[in-house]
Amino acid sequence: MTSHVRHRPADPLEQQRDIVVACAPLRSRVNLSGIVRTAGCCGVPRIIACGNARVDRAIARDAVESVRIENRRTLVPVLRDLRQDGYSVVGLEQTTSSVNIHEYVFPRKVALVVGNERLGLGDEELALTDACVEIPVWGRPNSYNVATATAMALYEYCRQYPHG
């Protein structure tokens, strides 16, 4: 019989992940806090949260110790800066040219851009992306919750780059 051990510590990454999550102003601090917690689980070193961003430490838990959270006013200048710093800017958005996340190969150095819960990413923000990925939906509503979708996208990135 196999013995199972709960809560084993995570294996350390061979190198720091070269991914940044950039969030449009979100309506709910619950969503941002969920994104922060997932980012911590995935070894994401940095989140840029736009607007009046606040994190609920009870939801984000230990991730607030390991993920650097930067607050900015608006997303467009953030995306310009990230591109200038050599990041591929990938929007998590349903567009006419978005790629199914199951078929997309993430660049190693990537900024994952997450839109507002209701409005998604605007035209100006989309114009600054190098690609957009979407997660298939087989029912209603037509998209996943922003924190859930971000978790799926971060998990896929980590699946592609398991060692950092």
Automatic annotation (TrEMBL):
Keyword annotations of the record: Methyltransferase, Transferase
Top-level taxon of the source organism: Bacteria
One BP term from GO: tRNA methylation
GO MF annotation, one: RNA binding
All copies of domain tRNA/rRNA methyltransferase SpoU type, residue ranges: 19-155
Matches recorded under InterPro entries: Alpha/beta_knot_MTases, SpoU_MeTrfase, TRM3/TARBP1, Trm3/TARBP1_C, tRNA_m1G_MTases_N
Name this polypeptide is given: SpoU rRNA methylase family protein
Native species: Amycolatopsis cihanbeyliensis
